[in-house]
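Let us work through a complete example step by step.
Step 1: write down the sequence.
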Amino acid sequence: MKIIGTQWKVKEKLKGLKSSNPNEDWEITYTTPIYGGWDLMVECKFNKLEDLDKIVTIFRTDNNLNQWIEATTTLISTKRNYPP
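Step 2: predict the structure and record it as tokens.
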């Protein structure tokens, strides 16, 4: 985080965030502050890899988020038959 303590603000801003576009099916499913090399972990689900680009772009372009977030690291995990 660029500013100490803003991980809680980021968590609240991302809580329940999902696409409003009917052609997209992505959402933020979990956020939590963590200790160590990173300050926050965000879990999301999406059907198309292009939707992940949209999610990361929101983090980088939102007026508040881009002031609070210094850098992002994206890790991808897959889960078969993940419930919708």
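Step 3: interpret the result. The mean pLDDT is 87.
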